[in-house]
Amino acid sequence: MIVNILRFSFKDGTSDKDKAAVLATMRRISSLESTSFGVVGQDLGDPAEGYTHTYCAGIEDLAAMERYMNDPVLIEGDLGVFPHLERLSPVRLSDDMDPGLAERITELHLARVARSPEWARLLESIPDTPIETGR
Hints:
With 135 residues, this protein is an alpha+beta fold. It is 41% helix and 25% strand.
């Protein structure tokens, strides 16, 4: 199992309506056929870290991760989500002890960047994120 966690906060001035739409989109994404489970809601970490919400999706294996990353619902959803985010920080974990797993997930991510310059541009426009696009 690969667990993908995204801690995030909204840009100042994001309306409650837009926040609700972003959370609804994330809930749709977290319940794709390629996911085993998903949770979207408030971040319960230290408020001083600046995150207000968290997205979590469990993905069975690398093949499911590839389907997940290429699913049109995810691709379209991210285009509507990213413009509203001020901070975005990923955490991934897995019970698969393959030492090359993280590298293969990164390769899937970079392939997506290469296929979708608009997606990469929107990801890069998030003011505070360590997610690299390799561009």
